[in-house]
Amino acid sequence: MSDDPSVDAEFERLQRRRWRRTAVRVGSVATVALAVIATARWIGLDPGYLYAHRENLGDVLLGEMLAPRALWAELSGEATGLVAAAAETLAIAGLGTALALPVALLLGVLAAANVTPWAVHATVRFLLGGLRAVPSMVYALLFVILAGLGPVAGALAIAVGTVGDLGRLFADEMEEIDETPVEAVRSTGAGTLATTTAARLPQVTTAYVAWTLFYLEINARKSSALGIVGAGGLGYPLIIAFRARNYTRVMAVVVAVLCLVVGVEAVANRLRDLLGAQRRASR
Q1: CA dist 137 to 4, 37, 165, Å?
Q2: What is the Cα–Cα distance from 106 to 88, expressed in whole angstroms?
Q3: What's the rounded mean pLDDT across residues 178-185?
């Protein structure tokens, strides 16, 4: 230790602070671990039960779902139906995203705190939060009542859910823009609409396109499950196969979903790359 009392006091203070931080971190980790354990017990998660029944899952996976010959025969025999269902799923995702985009764009701008007054953006954000709070499956059930069984209900369900998600993301992006161009346009006497069109939207166009493509990927996955409640797409043959306990057919539908999602993701990534290259070239 140093002969200078002030140095010793500072050292002890730093040591105490370090130990307090360590204690807080250990306490936080322990609290989270206890919460996870308590939650698992509350919902009835029993590792022993799962381990005891592991052979059931193994029999289904290896004996039916992943049996190469049976799976290939199922894929070959159901190829036409699976392709049609995959195309319907893609149509649901694409149409739902397209219907949601203009509404999400409008609400996203209105929900930005740097564009509209507090009363407006707070109300619109509350609306967007309410839309996000309801799962797409619930929207699908509601629209099945309105439009009947089929892909129309799925597209409408995707659209409403996407408005809530994209609207929030668009608002957040708008609030992060550089205000310098906005002030320059506003100094000319331009109103809110002209200022937004000329100075705000050009700054977020690339981000908006990227988020839209990303949500097209997400909606392709969502659409594949909406058929479970009668909203068309690959979900319908999936639930029929599950109910019939035909797990080979279940796996065939899963393969179709995988191919669809990977294909949409590859196209979306390519479009984002092209968009980024054009943006860099324009600078």
Answers
A1: 69, 29, 15
A2: 28
A3: 80
